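re: ur msg from earlier - yeah i can do the S-adenosylmethionine complex, just paste it... oh wait u already did. ok heres what im feeding in:
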Amino acid sequence: MSLEERLDQTKRPESEEKVQAFFSSVAKRYDIANSLMSFGTHYGWKRKAVAEVDPQPGDQCVDVCTGTNDVAVMLANKVGPEGHVTGVDWNQDMLDAGQFKIDKFGLSDRITNKRGDAEDLPLEDNTFNRATVAVASRHLNIDKHFQEMYRVLKPGGRAVCLDFFKPPNPVFAKLYDVYSYSMMPRIATLVTRDRTGVYDYLPDSIRVYYEPEAFAKEMRDAGFKNVKYYPISWGICYIFAGDK
Ligand SMILES: C[S@@+](CC[C@H](N)C(=O)[O-])C[C@H]1O[C@@H](n2cnc3c(N)ncnc32)[C@H](O)[C@@H]1O
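and the outut:
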């Protein structure tokens, strides 16, 4: 398959079957692979996203595409014993790895995981003060996903999205390309023993993904107000925030 065909493929969300296979394949080693690929910085990115969504003690939060619950755990530490965090993901293997972490940190009273689709959340309207989604947008039809985040938030609630984009600086983007096409997939595939090719797909998808402004427009089109966005780590990632 030519590069153009591969790039064209990555513009669309993959089939559910493929995404489920990716994450079932890597679930047990997902956290360690993330730490190695990002040299540990993914925790800092997630902490920034949580600071931006600014959960208050007692808040009800939802972390969509929660995976192994990193962001859910950070939210739970902010909302305290009076608050609650619901994690939603459609992959049971990722949720099982997350549950292990929740139990380890003694947060099972504060975090509930639900299996469900980010484009059709199994949650009531107007329920949450805060909603987050981290490094999952490229698997989703973003319009439906943002509409669902908006629907489940209470009026006045806030949503934050963290994801990978193409770095704006052309010199840095070249270096990042070299890393993400050569080293990153090898490290991750070795560590996770993945056979689905998920880590080969990621760099192509970063290259052809939305421009940040077009992504912000999707958020506005879903109804969010005060939408803002900014790069972190030289634009490897961006944080988006909006209010209902
Ligand atoms: C790259 S992981 C990110 C996990 C976590 N948010 C993090 O920051 O580490 C993407 C997650 O999105 C989930 N996912 C992808 N498409 C989904 C969908 N339509 N509905 C629910 N979960 C989905 C996958 O199962 C996977 O756990």
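cool cool. The chain is about 50% helix and 20% strand. ping me if u need the other ligands too
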